[in-house]
Specification:
Layout lengths: L8 H10 L5 E6 L7 E7 L3 E6 L8 H13 L25 E3 L2 E7 L11 H17 L13 H11 L5 H18 L2 H4 L3 E4 L8 E4 L6 E5 L6 E4 H12 L10 H14 L4 H27 L12 H13 L7
Helix pairs in contact: 3-8, 4-5, 4-9, 5-9, 7-9, 9-10
Bound molecules: adenosine-5'-diphosphate and the ligand N[C@@H](CCOP(=O)(O)O)C(=O)O.
The ligand N[C@@H](CCOP(=O)(O)O)C(=O)O binds next to helix 9.
């Protein structure tokens, strides 16, 4: 887990009060994330998550926070950011959802019920696929735009930075995959792909489920802080690479992938171009996270508690996707 900025109960309490969320009773660092500082905050009125943003700026954040608000208001299960209800004495105005704490941009959102499912079945994958398709449709009339900041331009900038840390076989793979992705992004099929706001980091640890009853109940998608406007197919590729593989080898799991894609397509049918480019976008998803994990691993930031993710995992996933491209079966 990562805590880049320590926050005490006394420091957080006035902020919670300015949001009309009551008296702060406890504040506990969240395990799991690597990007931001997250705390569970419980008040006498409810349970919330306080995030201090460590890399994203005041200028970039309104896109993410308003996207979450828009999706929540369109019935997609995501944590809704809370707005200031009364002047907070620190420059915040009523209605603001982008807050400030200890000089950092901050937000307070609802805490989702349940827990992440780290060993998903086809039923979990179907729930994620269906909700992702509904999210893509709900995002189409969102009126703000921001590019995917971890998209092709960032890969082109960052690969030269991580290359000195790679052996020869890894260098060959990363350079040839980057060249392939630049080639795909210049194609007419890629330009014709449907696009809009995407989550772009929809891994098992960014979805909550309530496990009561027989069928898993998805209680929400969270951690929208890599979201951006990009192709819906890239979002699908990223999600399939985490939800529908065997984590030890990176190999595709057909039963989970079929369940995910059938449920997605029951809500939004893939276009002919999307069907052609699905294997390429799965490779793109693997490349994106191989690069970011290499970057985090070899050029780490200071954090009180931080566990860098293993870059070797996405090298294996990428090799699998290149060696065994899987098209659609439905
Ligand atoms: N809205 C939320 N509801 C419930 N738990 C949350 C919520 N946001 C974050 N968490 C918890 O905090 C952990 C870290 O959050 P995450 O968003 O993944 O961190 P980061 O911003 O560093 O990626 C998650 O694994 C989850 O347990
Ligand atoms: N999902 C990414 C890491 C991004 O960090 P998160 O904690 O914001 O999900 C990966 O696995 O590399």
């Amino acid at each position: 887990m990562a805590v880049y900025t320590e926050v005490s109960l006394d420091e957080a309490a006035p902020l919670l009060q300015s949001l009309g969320l009551g008296q702060l009773q406890s504040i506990t660092a969240c395990a799991g994330g690597i990007e931001n500082t997250n705390y569970f905050v419980d008040t006498d009125q409810g349970r919330y998550v306080l995030t201090l943003f460590e890399r994203l700026s005041f200028a970039q954040l309104p896109f993410y926070l308003h996207l979450m608000k828009h999706l929540a208001q369109h019935g997609i299960p995501v944590p809704e950011p809370h707005a200031i209800t009364a002047a907070d004495g620190a420059g915040g105005k009523p209605g603001d959802i982008l807050l400030r704490l200890k000089g950092k941009p901050a937000a307070v959102v609802n805490r989702l019920r349940g827990r992440s499912e780290l060993a998903p079945t086809p039923a979990h994958c179907a729930a994620v696929g269906e909700t992702l398709a509904r999210m893509h449709l709900a995002g189409r009339d969102f009126d703000r735009s921001q590019p995917n900041l971890r998209g092709l331009a960032w890969w082109n900038e960052t690969v030269p930075v991580v290359l000195p840390h790679l052996d020869e076989a890894q260098s060959r793979l990363i350079r040839s995959e980057l060249a392939y992705q630049n080639h795909v992004a210049a194609s007419s099929n890629w330009h014709a792909l449907p696009r809009g706001p995407i989550h772009a980091d929809l891994f098992r640890d960014n979805v909550m489920f309530d496990s009561e009853g027989d069928a898993p109940q998805l209680t929400g998608f969270f951690d929208f802080y890599f979201a951006g406007c990009d192709t819906f197919l890239f979002d699908i590729g990223v999600s399939l690479n985490d939800w529908c593989i065997h984590l030890d080898s990176g190999a595709h799991d057909a039963a989970r992938a079929d369940a995910f894609l059938a449920a997605y397509q029951a809500v939004r049918r893939l276009s002919p171009q999307e069907r052609v480019l699905l294997p390429a976008m799965q490779r793109a998803g693997a490349l994106r996270f191989w690069i970011s994990r290499l970057w985090d691993f070899h050029l780490p930031r200071e954090a009180a508690l931080l566990q860098a993710h293993d870059p070797g995992h996405f090298e294996r996933v990428l090799r699998e996707r290149v060696a065994h491209p899987r098209g659609l079966t439905c």
